[in-house]
Design a protein that fits this description.
mainly alpha; Arc Repressor Mutant, subunit A; 2 domains; 3-stranded antiparallel sheet
Length: 163
Amino acid sequence: MQDELVRCAAAFLRNKGKNVVTEKEFLMGVSMDLRWMPYRDAQTLLSAMVKHGVLEKDGEYLRPLFDESAMDLPVAYRPPSELSAAAAKAARGTSAEPEDLFQKLMGTAEGMGIPKKTFLASSNGIQKKMNVDITVAGIIVLRDHGADVSGYVGEAYKRLSVR
């Protein structure tokens, strides 16, 4: 895992022709320019690289903690598809990431017979109208349909107050 993270970082830096990049430049480069993975996976990859000491955050810049010029890389390097899954596991450590609360709300809505499209449309409408997080909007939609949302309110408060 560590070797593949180093190889991936070296390939990116060599492709860009730089040894120092901004975080945004890294994320956009990996996801949009090189099309290695989706943006969210690129964020996970970056946090795994920082956590494992492959890259160092220095203010807004990322610097490699290895000698990328000594690496022997194929010209058309592309990280293996398992790298994003392994990086996600490494970035969050051994604990399993809790299921997204909005997904739980959507499951509850479907269990009540509310079509997924209707739930999403209603949640998005409330989110825009009230300028609240999508999770809060989902809780309001469920409450309006008569669901007991008391168990979700505390969990939503905990998760949103951390952000």
